[in-house]
């Protein structure tokens, strides 16, 4: 395989941050999608400034040769009923289906500290404490995943810092306790590295169950500061823990990651999703850095 089944997308969080709207608050939707296209990407995820009217959104994206490939869904299976989760899930499925996407992403935010500015990300992470907690969580995801599968879509669950599925051990349990036909993984090398895991080993382990890929890099000096100063996830982002693949300040082994993808049957999107403060890291400049780097490794 030579990446002929791969498409390259980009996340709008590089322009405007969903969790911290003040980051990139000055960047408009039109600027965001225009610069995505200018940087050479053909798809994107959905951000907080994107119009929800599908007709308006389709026209804006079509003018720029872009398509929607995914959107984050905030699962709250640890804090809300399955019926409440289904309502929000189906509403987003309706939107994504209309936009032509085949994947619905997202992670568990119900008991997560990822959106709390003053809670240390490692000390305050969400947990599933008992076997019963895991059973309820897994069964809920299975039901939601079946709803997606019945509509020709895939639930791609995002392991994420600050949540109950952050480490490889937690991801293993999630994969083992859910139906592989209903629940897939949204793999993210940056979050695995942040969690202290080997992202190459993780991708080798999960590539057969992966329906969507996020690629970002990590600045190790900032990550060390997160540990030393017990910083929150949001503070880590503001201080620049993440950067784009191709930035010399990063440390992840992307040639090895792409070799895993090359030797697999993965057929889907690879998405640049490296949230930074746009005032410090110009989104277009960094998107171009990543796009050129991806081309050097894939030929696309």
Task: Explain what you see.
The chain has 300 residues and is α/β, with parallel strands linked by helices. It has one domain (6-298): TIM Barrel (Alpha-Beta Barrel). It is 40% helix and 13% strand. It contains 11 helices and 10 strands. The chain has helices spanning 29-39, 54-62, 82-98, 131-150, 168-176, 189-194, 199-206, 220-229, 233-238, 254-262, 283-298; strands spanning 6-10, 43-45, 67-70, 103-104, 154-158, 183-188, 210-215, 217-218, 242-243, 268-272. It has an 8-stranded parallel sheet with strand order 3-2-1-10-7-6-5-4. A two-stranded antiparallel sheet has the order 8-9. Helix 1 runs parallel beside helix 11 and helix 3 runs parallel beside helix 4 (131-150). The protein starts with 5 loop residues before the first strand and ends with a helix. The mean pLDDT is 97.
Q: Supply the number of helical segments.
A: 11
Residue share in helices? 40-55%
What class, by secondary structure content?
Answer: alpha/beta
Radius of gyration: 18 Å
Catalogue the unreliable spans.
none
Superfamily at the CATH H level? Divalent-metal-dependent TIM barrel enzymes
- Give the beta-strand count: 10
Overall residue-averaged pLDDT value: 97
Total tally of structural domains: 1
Which series of helices and strands comes N to C? EHEHEHEHEHEHHEEHHEHEH
Task: Could you tell me the CATH topology label.
Answer: TIM Barrel
Share of residues in strands: 5-15%
What strand order characterises the main sheet? 3-2-1-10-7-6-5-4
Q: Per CATH, which architecture?
A: Alpha-Beta Barrel
| CATH top level assignment | Alpha Beta
Label the overall shape. globular
- What is the distance, rounded to the nearest whole angstrom, between the alpha carbons of the first and last residues? 13 Å
Biggest sheet overview? 8 strands, parallel
